[in-house]
Design goal:
It is a single chain. 22% of the residues lie in helices and 29% in strands. It folds into two domains: 220 residues, Gyrase A, domain 2 (2-Layer Sandwich), CATH 3.30.1360.120; 81 residues, Elongation Factor Tu (Ef-tu), domain 3, CATH 2.40.30.110. The strands form four sheets. The protein has a six-stranded antiparallel beta barrel. With 362 residues, it is an alpha+beta fold. α1 crosses α6. The longest helix is centred in the N-terminal third of the chain and has 13 residues. The protein contains ten helices and 17 strands. The protein starts with 10 loop residues before the first strand and ends with a helix.
């Protein structure tokens, strides 16, 4: 059987195909639609049954009860305090709802969903042993024979019921064309064989990640920690419906958005590339001697050079030089605001007159 390791130049690890010799060139090909990316770090969960959409609606941050076949969206599963536990891309074909999830989160999400079925008519199955996810532009993945409708990433458009915090226009992800297709083992085998013969170009996960980071697109397995609120990553855009029915964590989501501010906020970093040093996830970000946050995602972009996403304190100053503490020493960085410090507090709460003034007026 032909495998990804047989593709000329392929570097494969436990996550999948990392690159085929030139991650920077692969980004260009991937963005232009002339390459496809096998997403070994993504898995597939199917949810069947008559109650599937209303059931997922009741459990998640997204309005799904009336999700039309072929429409792409995404959901978050939150804990009771509104912190992100799981995330999934969502598309329905009229009979089955398909969830595309990060591989490291798939087992936990599938297990949690199975426990939440109760007596409802739903059937949750992890299909990762038989199905593979392939990414690329919409035109590129359209050439594949798919098992389900293709999921088209809604980022960074504001979905119905969503809210955007980033004020940059145009948004860095505005021109990003990204879709993910679910194919069976036979179709994937044909794709790999064509790549071995040089008939189709493949791109690796390093290229996929670079394009994602440049678009400020959050990813649960990389950017989320145990404290993450969706507001902090500007994730209300595509994954949260602010006026849908009750779900776990909704009270926190509403309070932070309407009355408060997210305690942390994501920034995009341009890194000093003169020494060819890249930080690692978790490296501290500081202003002077004060640590204000940490790195979540890092990439080498084909146009922007070394870039990163970082979660920092809401009150951290803006427009000042930053330093990232890496294993190879300090690294200079400049930040661009994604979620501003005043994000949230969107409700106009009327001020009540003081009792003394009211009585004096009377």
């Amino acid at each position: 059987m032909t495998s990804l390791s047989d593709v000329p130049g392929a570097v494969v690890d436990d996550r999948g195909l990392r690159h085929v010799g030139s991650p920077v060139a692969e980004q260009r090909r991937l963005a232009s639609g002339s390459a496809l990316a096998p997403l070994g770090d993504r898995r597939v969960i199917s949810v069947g049954g008559e109650d599937r959409r209303s059931w997922l609606d009741s459990l998640s941050s997204q309005a799904l009860t009336h999700l039309a076949p072929g429409v792409s969206t995404e959901l978050l599963i939150l804990d009771p305090q509104g912190r992100v536990e799981h995330a999934a891309a969502v598309v329905d074909d009229g009979d089955t709802t398909w969830l595309l999830v990060d591989a490291t989160d798939a087992d936990a999400l599938a297990s949690w969903l199975a426990r939440m079925r109760f007596r409802l008519r739903v059937d949750v199955r992890d299909r990762s042993d038989e199905l593979v996810v392939v990414g690329g532009t919409r035109a590129a993945v359209a050439a594949l024979t798919t098992v389900a409708p293709v999921w088209v990433d809604p980022w960074p458009d504001v979905s119905p019921g969503g809210w955007a915090y980033a004020r940059v226009e145009p948004h860095p992800g505005a021109d990003r064309d990204w879709a993910e297709a679910i194919v069976d083992a036979a179709e994937f085998e044909r794709l790999v064989e064509r790549a071995v013969r040089g008939e189709v170009a493949l791109a690796g996960l390093d290229a996929v990640e670079a394009l994602r980071v440049a678009a400020w697109r959050p990813r649960v397995s990389i950017d989320a920690d145990e404290r993450l609120l969706p507001h902090e990553m500007d994730w209300l855009r595509t994954a949260v419906h602010l006026s849908k029915g009750c779900y776990r964590g909704q009270e926190t989501v509403a309070k932070v958005h309407n009355l408060g501010h997210p305690p942390r906020r994501v920034v995009a970093l341009q890194l000093d590339g003169s020494d060819n040093v890249l930080p690692a996830r978790g490296d501290a970000v500081r202003v002077g001697d004060s640590v204000i946050g940490s790195i979540t995602s890092v990439a080498m972009h084909h146009e922007e050079g070394p870039i990163a996403l970082a979660l920092i304190k809401r009150t951290a100053p803006e427009g000042v030089p930053l330093v990232v503490d890496t294993a190879d020493g300090p690294l200079a960085a400049a930040a661009e605001t994604v979620v501003p410090a005043d994000a949230g507090a969107t409700a106009g709460v009327p001020r009540l007159p003081r009792l003394g003034r009211r009585r004096a007026a009377e």
